[in-house]
Amino acid sequence: MKSTNMAYLILSTATVLLFLCLSPLTTTAANTAVLDIDGHPLQAGTNYNVLPVIRVPLGGGLTLASRNSSTQSCPLYVAQDTAELSKGIPLKFYPVNPKDKTIPLTTDLNVVFDASTTCVQSTQWKFTNDEAEGRPYVGTGGTIGNPGVQTLGNWFKIEKAGSGKYDYKFVFCPGVCDFCRPFCGDVGVFQQRIGTRVLGINTDNMPLLVNFKKA
C-alpha cells in the first residue's frame, strides 16, 4: 500500500511539473508580438515599410507594380521596388481579432498598402492564382475583416524566420475557416520577364525575409 501511494505521489508530481513547464511556453508563443527593427511591437493600423533583409538588384521595399507589362498598370500586384534602396510604399496590418492593438506572430491578418491608385481594385493583399502559369501570386483587391470562407484569400500571417532578431517572413495559410483546406506556403519572389520581382506563394522553402520599419 505504501509503495502504491508513493508511485501515485510521484506520478502526480511529474504531471504537475510537466504542466508548469509547458504552460508558460504555450502562453508566451501565443502572445509574442512581431517586432520592428527598433525592437517595438508592430501596432495595428499603423504604417510600416517592409524591407528585404538581403538587398539585391531590383529588390527594394515592398510596393505595387504591374506583373508583366510596363504599360499596363492594372491590376496591381505586390512587388519589390526596382530601386534597391527604396523603402517602398507603407503598409498597415489589421489582425483578425479587432481587439488586438499589436500584431501577434502567426495570427491571421489583412495587409493593406497606404496608397491610392487608378485601379478599381483595393490595395489590400489577396491570393491571386494565375491558372495559365500555374503560379499563385500576391495580388490586390481584398477587403478588410469578415473572416470566413468568402474572404479566405485575404488573410496572411507573419512568422519568425532567418537568423536575425527582427527577421520575419509572410505566410499564406489562412485559419479563418474551420472546414476549409487552403493552399499553404511561404511568400517568396517570382522574377518576371520585365525584371519585376513580384511576390507569390511557394512551397520551396525560399521565403522573402523581411524587416519592418515604422514609416
From TrEMBL:
It holds the Pfam family Kunitz_legume. Residues 1-29 form the signal peptide. SMART domains: STI. It comes from the Eukaryota. GO terms for molecular function: endopeptidase inhibitor activity. InterPro entries: Kunitz_inhibitor_STI-like_sf, Prot_inh_Kunz-lg. Keywords: Disulfide bond, Signal. CDD domains: beta-trefoil_STI_VvMLP-like. Transmembrane segments: none annotated. The keyword Chloroplast does not apply. Belongs to the protease inhibitor I3 (leguminous Kunitz-type inhibitor) family. PANTHER family: KUNITZ TRYPSIN INHIBITOR 2, TRYPSIN INHIBITOR A. This is Kunitz trypsin inhibitor 5. It comes from Spinacia oleracea (Spinach).
